[in-house]
Write a structure and sequence with these properties.
By secondary structure, the protein is α/β, with parallel strands linked by helices. Helix 2 packs across helix 9 and helix 6 runs parallel beside helix 11.
Length: about 325
């Protein structure tokens, strides 16, 4: 029977050796069909606009369309976390990664790891976040808003794009530093939050400057402060939180992730395509329009940054008084 065992062993080895070129060929052929890009925010907001443009530009370098699917929820982590648990690491389903991905596990118990359950493909840009009110609001400054909140606990309503988002965390952290209590109202996306402000249903909002700026320019909204290290060029005269005495500086980068275990060759193709998209004049013009910043990282650097950022996020969650109990 030794000859039979040898034959079987040879057959297994031969099959494995034959599979290697096929596997390599599959990677070389990537992508051979459309790619799905999951975005954890509702359509119409700054994040949705950003990734639709990036997908459109990157698809030209990949030779296949990139189809955006909006899946808001769970602090913008529903899209990437569902992908990590259900999709194969073949590069045909990828997801937008925002700061919430590296924060949400401190706020809620989750069944995924924010670092090891993902392939970190590339860093792409960064947001500027602002605190804004309706142009008709009696709050002319942040001091006015804080004074109201001090004398009216829990009556200051702050709208954001959803519970657990960066906007929510910044609102709560600012309230904590000002020693006031607010009532947070989380919507399904930025467009709903803005509608609430414009309609007078809520009193303030924290959002990306790209969402707010068009309403500022049309005279419908007023920005009270930004969370950038330096005053935003697009908002002359608007102070930073830090300049007002609040030690809260938060430029939030965003990027692209896939399920863990993606082949390096596939990761590199995605990285090169999205890097070309981010380097394009068309995308840089969009960054100016949305008030966003350039922030690019290749895969290894992006993963290293993610690990460091994840550790640092605990302090922000604590300051926002949203740290979950063990």
């Amino acid at each position: 029977m030794s000859w039979l065992k040898a034959a079987l062993r040879y057959g297994v080895v031969a099959a494995a050796l034959m599979a290697v070129p096929q596997f390599a060929k599959a990677q070389d052929a990537y992508p051979s069909r459309p790619i799905k890009l999951l975005v954890g925010f509702a359509a119409g907001g700054a994040t949705d606009t950003t990734f639709r443009k990036l997908g459109e530009l990157a698809s030209k370098h990949l030779g296949q369309p990139i189809i955006v699917e909006n899946r808001p929820g769970a602090g913008a982590t529903l899209a990437p976390s569902t992908m990590a648990k259900t999709e194969p690491p073949d590069g045909y389903t990828i997801a937008a990664a925002t700061a919430g991905l590296l924060r949400y596990p401190y706020m809620q118990k989750v069944d995924w790891d924010p670092i090891t359950d993902f392939t970190w493909i590339t860093g792409l840009g960064g947001y500027t976040f602002v605190l804004a009110v309706n142009a008709d609001s009696p709050f002319k400054t942040t001091a006015d808003l804080v004074a109201y909140a001090k004398t009216n606990p829990d009556k200051l309503t702050v709208a954001t794009a959803g519970a657990g988002t960066t906007m929510h965390l910044l609102a709560e952290a600012l309230a904590g530093m000002a020693d006031v209590k607010i009532t947070h109202i989380g919507y399904k996306g930025s467009s709903e939050a803005v509608t609430a402000i414009l309609g007078g249903h809520t009193m303030a909002t924290v959002d990306a400057i790209g969402t707010i700026l068009p309403y500022v320019e049309s005279g419908k909204m007023r920005v009270l402060l930004s969370f950038d290290p330096q005053p935003a060029a697009s908002l002359p005269g608007v102070p930073t939180a830090k300049s007002l005495g609040y030690d809260l500086v938060y430029p939030a980068p965003y990027g692209l992730v896939g399920p863990k275990g993606m082949p390096p060759a596939v990761v590199d193709k995605l990285y090169q395509a999205f890097k070309a998209a981010a380097d394009s004049d068309e995308y840089k013009k969009l960054l100016v329009t949305l008030g966003q910043t350039e922030w690019q990282k290749p895969p290894a650097e992006y993963q290293k940054w993610a690990g460091e950022f994840y550790l640092s996020e605990r302090s922000l969650v604590e300051r926002a008084r949203l740290l979950r109990q063990p």
